[in-house]
Amino acid sequence: MVVSLVEADRIRSLTGVRLALDPGLTVIVGPNGAGKTNLVESVYFGMTSRSFRTSDRRDLIPFGSSFARCRVTVSGGSVDHVFMASASRAEGNRFVMDGARIDQAEAMSHRPMVTVFSPDRLELVKGPPAGRRAHIDSFVAARWPGRASLRSAFGRILAQRNALISRIAAGNGDSSQLSTWDSQFSEAGANLSLAREEAVAELDERWVEAAEDLGLEGPKKLTYRPGSSTSSEEIREGLQEKLQNDLRLGRTSWGPHHDEIRLEMDGRQLRRFGSQGQQRMGLLALLFAERTALLETGRSAPLMLLDDVMSELDEHRRERLVDRLLEGGQSIITAAEGELIPDRPGIRRVSISELTDQETAPSASEAT
Ligand SMILES: Nc1ncnc2c1ncn2[C@@H]1O[C@H](COP(=O)(O)OP(=O)(O)OP(=O)(O)O)[C@@H](O)[C@H]1O
Ligand SMILES: [Mg+2]
Q: Which pTM does this prediction carry?
């Protein structure tokens, strides 16, 4: 599966932008403030109905407008699918595929995984574990489509158990319901933990290899640190042991919602001790490790969105990066200066001004 068309109807500074994409590497070039990050954000928004820059999707609504909307066409599966995400002040968010509403898990099974490198995205390495859990779960969905709904299924059960726990703690909950939720929780929790453990096991060596290739020196390791267990019996036992504590806290303190995925260098967490450059390499290497794993297991490669990656890298690393990207899979790089992108056959270069000027094109042809 590849993304064949992006239509950013209205996203931030972009109106009526239409970009047909190649299956390989596309470079978007343009000066600061021209809308390159907005374009990459549009692609991500169209595929996921989320932004990697903000948790408030209303930020994407163009100033003075009432809604934001982007459409993305995915080809190469059994049929083409058109995803459309929108955000509106009056009507909230909508996410549809071929005109029908869908949830994240369904979307993931009909589109390639989408991964992002951007200065904001470093949060994935530096920030709290929740971001890494969500990221690994999207890899799980791309790697094993049958497991795409494990995350949302577990999330629902966790919310229900937490609600029950806080009702019981407040004295108006039915504690006989706990046992049902505990068995569902331990079942769903173990499935999710096991998937994460297997995902990290597949990625570890590939991450080390990619990180070395990109020049991140020293011994490295990607590890899964479960917040509970991969065994449903053990999760269930833990829930019972910790019940009093949970009632005091008013929430569930044991389970895969406390999992951590650690990126380590020289035995230390990149998150806490890595330099900016090392964290950047660590993140890029993770995205490449995922891509290699998906390609080698016959899955669709992720669409890689690399915003402003070149300005951060020296010449040798820029060459290694582009060569890796050209090895296979679909990717979009943005750059303020086209010269920063090494010259290689197979790269399609697009100037952002070609796209942002399109807005006048349809009306001109309509007039004739
Ligand atoms: N909601 C919005 N509505 C309209 N314009 C917006 C909105 N949000 C941001 N912008 C504008 O979008 C422009 C920035 O676009 P973008 O971040 O895509 O630039 P860029 O090409 O990535 O620049 P750089 O090379 O500096 O990263 C700014 O002029 C900003 O004011
Ligand atoms: Mg930018």
A: 0.90
